[in-house]
Protein 1
Amino acid sequence: MQLLASYLSGAWSAGSGSAQLLVNPATEAPLAEVRAGGHDLAAAFAYARTTGAGELAHLGFAARGAVLASLARAIHGAREELLALAIANGGNTRGDAKFDIDGGALALSHYAELGAKLGTAPLLADGAAIQVGRTARMSGQHVWAPCPGVAVHINAFNFPSWGLCEKLACALLAGMPVIAKPATATALVAHRLVELFAELLPAGALQLLVGPAGALLDSLAPGDVVAFTGGSATARALRSHPAVVAHGVRLNVEADSLNAAVLAPDVELSSEAGGLFLADVVRDMTQKTGQKCTAIRRVLVPADQLPEIADALRDRLSRVTVGDPAQDGVTMGPLATAAQRDDVRAAIAVLAAATDAVHGGTGDVTPTGVPAGKGFFVAPVVRSTRSPMTCAPLHDREIFGPAITLGAYDGSPATAAAFVARGQGCLVSSVYSDDRAWVTRFVAGAAPWAGRLYLGSSKMAAQSPGPGTALPSLLHGGPGRAGGGEELGGERGLHLYMQRTALEGDASVLKSLLGDPA
Ligand code: NAP
C-alpha cells in the first residue's frame, strides 16, 4: 500500500499515528493511506517565512512566471499518469479527469504569461498616480506589495489538480510561499503534482500537508493568508479559528453555491440558444458527477415550456451510463466518498418530498462494471416544481451531486433575478436569451447575487465553455452563501496575496518605485 508522505521543511515526511485510507470510489479498492500525526508544522511555517519568502522575493514577477510555466510543462509531461490517478482516486471519467488536470495546467500557464508581462519591479501599480498637492510634484500612488507571510491553501476533494494549481499560481506569482492541504479523500493527484513540482520550485516555495489539517492553522501569524475551498460548515470553523481572529489573517472562502440557470421566454428549445441551455444543464449534472462548485442546481424555465424541457432532459439523461469510469462506455462515475453519497441521497430525499419526479427517481442505480454493492453511486435526478420561489429545499441546501430542480415561472426578468437571489449568493448563474432588453433587466437584478453571470445566446453558443468552467481570466468566487471570496480574474487573482498601500510623496520617487527611471 502506498503511504502518502507530506512535503514539509524541504523533506518528505511520512507522518505517524493512525492511518486514513484512500480508496477507489467506484470499487472501494484501497489505493493509499496517510498518517497525519507527527509533523512539525511550526517548523514548516518558519521554513516558508524565511527560505521560501526570501527565494521568491529574489526572483521577481517575470522569473516567478517562468517557474509557473515549468510547472505547467511538468503537468503536460506526466499527463497520462495524472489522468489515471484522477480516474482511480476521484471516480472521474477520462473527460472529468482532463477537466481537472488540464485545468490546472491552464491556470499555471495563464499566470506564467501574466508574470512575463509584469516585469521586474517589486511592486504593482493600482491605477494611475494622483496629484495630491498644490503642484504635480506632490503625488499619490496606490501600489500592491506581496504579503510578508505564508499562504495556506485548503482545498476541496473535487478538483485536486485545478484547486491546487489555481491557488498556487496566484500566490507564487504574487511572491508568497505556500503550504497546500488537499482534501484527504482524493489527495493522490495533488501528492503526485507536488512530487513533480518540488524539483522545479525554489526551496520553501511550496510545502504539502496530506491528511487532516490538525494544528495547521495554529501557526498563523500577521501577514499570512488562508485560501479555503470547501463546505460552509468548515468555513465557519475557519472564520472563528483563534489564530485567524487574533492576527486578523486574511481568509478567502469559496463555499457552497446554489447556481441557477434561467431560460428566458424568447428562446425556443430548438434554437441555438435553447440547444446551448440544454447542453449546459446536462453537462453540469453529469460532468464530475455534478461535483462542481459551479454546477447548475436550480433551473428556471417558462411555465409553458416545462413539459417539453422535462422530455428533452429525460431523453438526454437516459443515455448516461453510470459505472466504473475505468470501463469503456461509462459516461458518469461515482461520487468521491461514501459520506458524499450519503449526504447527496439525504438531500435528494428532502427535495423529493417537496417536488415532483421528472427523471431518475431519487437516484438509485445499478452501476456498470462494478462488483455488487460496491461504489458510491447516485444516478442523475431531475425534479420539478410549479412554485419555485416558495420551495425551500430548492434554495436552502446544495446537493453536491447529479441533481437539479426545474422551476416554472412567468417569464419576467424580475422574477428570474429574484430566483437567482433566492440562492443567497452564488458563484455563477446563467441566463439564455437573445432579447437584449430582457437580459439588461435581468442582469441589473441578478448581478449582486453572483460572482459571475454567464449570458448564453445564439451568437456565442458555438464557442461557449459553459457556465461550469471557471476561467483564469475571470473572477471565481461569489457573495453570501458562496463565501464572499474572490480568486483568479487575471491580475486580480494576485491581490489576495498582496497588500494595497497608498504611497504619498515626490512624483518622480513614486515612478521610480514602479520601475520607471523617469
Ligand atoms: P470540506 O469538508 O469543507 O473540506 C474542504 C477542505 O477543508 C478539506 O481539505 C478538508 O480536509 C479541510 N478541512 C476540514 N475541516 C477542517 C478544519 N477544521 N481545519 C482546516 N481544514 C479543514 O468540504 P469538501 O467535502 O471537501 O467539499 C465539498 C464542499 O466544497 C461542497 O459543499 C462545495 O460546495 C464546496 N466547494 C466549493 C468550491 C468553490 O470554489 N466555491 C469548489 C469546490 C467545492 P479533509 O479532507 O482532510 O477533511
Protein 2
Amino acid sequence: MKAAGKHYRTIWLDEKNDTVVSIIDQRFLPHKFIIENITTVSEMISAIADMHVRGAGLIGAAAGYGMYLAALEAEEKEAFNNRLMKAATDLKASRPTAVNLEWAVNKQLSAISNAASIKEKIAATKHTAQLIADEDAEYCRRIGEHGLAIIEQISKNKKGEVVNILTHCNAGWLAFIDYGSATAAIYEAHKRGIKLHVWVDETRPRNQGASLTAWELLQEGVPHTVIADNTGGHLMQHSMVDMVITGADRVTRAGDAANKIGTYLKALAAFDNKIPFYVALPSSTFDWNISDGLKEIKIEERSSDEVKYIQGLCEGELKTILVTPLDSPAVNYGFDVTPSRLITGLITERGICRANEKSILELFPENL
Ligand code: MRU
C-alpha cells in the first residue's frame, strides 16, 4: 500500500545488501515515517518486543526474517544448530499472543532441518522468510476479495448509500505485509467505487487505531473518522454502523478470536444491535491446537506505563506525557477473547466461514 504516494511493504530485504532487513518503525507514525535497518536477531527480537513492528502477520514475517539473520550470524560459529534453537526460543518469547510468531519460527526450523550444509540452511532460511512475507501479502489480497462480497451486499441493500464500517486497533497493511486483514476488503471496495466510511476506534492504550489505521486510510484516500474507544456502542444504537470488521491475533479451531483489548466489548454491542461482526484473518492466525479461547489463550500483559503515559506531537516534537496520578497503579492486558457465538463470520484467504469448528474445517480440511 502507499505512504506519501509510494508503494511500500512493511518489511523487506535491502535491495543492495541482502544481510539487512528493513522495516517501517511504527513507533513514530503517524508523525514520522522512519525506516529502520536490522542486521541481528537480537535487534529483531527488540523490534518485535518494543513494537517497532506489530500486528499478527507482520510479527510472523519479522520472526521469519529474524531466523534468517540468526542463521547468518551463526555461520562462522560453532554449534550452528544450537544457536538457531536459542534464536527460535527467544523469538517465540518476544510477544506471546500472536500465533503467527510461533508458526513462522516453526516453519523456519523445519526448513533448516531439511537442508544439509550450513550454506544450504542459510539459503533455506532466506527463502522461507521471503515465502512467509509473500504468502502473507497474497493471503491478505484474497481476504480482500472475499470480504468485498459482504460490503457489496450491504451497499446494495442500502441502495448505494454510504456503508459505515467500524474497526478496532490496526489490522491494516501495517500489521501485515500488504493490504491488511480487516482493511483488505475496505481497500478493495473503495477501489471499486463503493461508497464507504470507516469508524476508527482510537484503541487505547497504544492508540494503534488513531495513529496507524487512520494514517493508512488517509494515505489511500478512504473516508474515515477517529472515535474514542467508548463511542462504538452509541453509534451502533443509532444505526450509524452497518458492519464491524476486526483482525485477530489468534483464533481457535472452534472460532474464538483473541484480538486487541476492547474487541470483545464491540462484539457485545454489535450482537445486541444485530450488526454483523466479522473477523478477518489469514490461516496462519489459526491455532489448530486449541478450542477454548477463554481458557487456552495466554494473554500478553504489557507495561502499565502504556496506560499511564501517552505519546503525541507537541509543537513539532514527539512527546510522552503522564495522564494518571504518578502513583496510581495501572494494569495493561494487551488482548481479549471474543467468543465464537458473537462472531458472524471469519473472512479467510480461502473464503468466508462461520465461527465454529465444522465450518472452519470445511475450508481447512487438512487440519481435521
Ligand atoms: O499489540 P499489537 O499492536 O501487536 O496488536 C495486535 C493488533 O494489531 C491487533 O490486535 C489487530 O487487530 C490484529 S493483528 C492483525
Protein 3
Amino acid sequence: MKTAIYPGSFDPVTYGHLDIIKRASRLVDRVIIGIIPNSSKSPLFSVEERLEMIKECIKDIDNVEVTSFEGLTINFAKQNGADVIIRGLRAVTDFEYEMQLAQANKTVAPEIETVFYVTSSQYSFLSSSIVRDVAKYGGDNSRFVPDIVVKKLKEKFSR
Ligand code: ADP
C-alpha cells in the first residue's frame, strides 16, 4: 500500500490544490493532506477553518484525508509511514525552492520520494494569495475556489 502526504498552507484551499489532490488520489492508495499552521506568512484562516473547508471539498474522495501538523514535513511523512511527498509546480518560480526542499528531505529520509505534479494549465496562475486578494477587494472567486470557500471568504471580509 502506497501512502502520500500533501503538505501546504492551504490558506485557503483552491481548485489548483484540489486538482493535485484528485490526481494524487489516483496514483497512491492513501493521500494525507497536511495543513501547516504557522508558515512564515500570517494566515487568514485558522487551522480549524482550513481543515473544515478541505474536509467538505474532499468528502467524495474515499482515499483522501486531512489533518494538520507542526514541525518538519519530513517528520510528518515518517510518522504517517508515507512513501511519497506530493508537491505542485506552477512555474519556474516555484522550482528552486521546491528543489531545495526535496533535496533536503531526500538527505534526511532517502526512502521517501518527492513527486511533483505540474499544474493543470487552467490553474497555473492560481494561488491562495491571489484568492485572498480578490476576496479582500470584493471580487468574484467562484472560478478559483469551491462554494464553501467563497462563503467563508465572504464571511471573513464582511466583518
Ligand atoms: P506552501 O505554503 O507550502 O507553498 P500552498 O498551500 O501555497 O503551501 O501550496 C501547497 C502545494 O500546492 C505547493 O506544492 C504548491 O506549489 C502547490 N500549489 C498551490 N497552488 C497550485 C496550483 N494552482 N497548481 C498546482 N500546484 C499548486
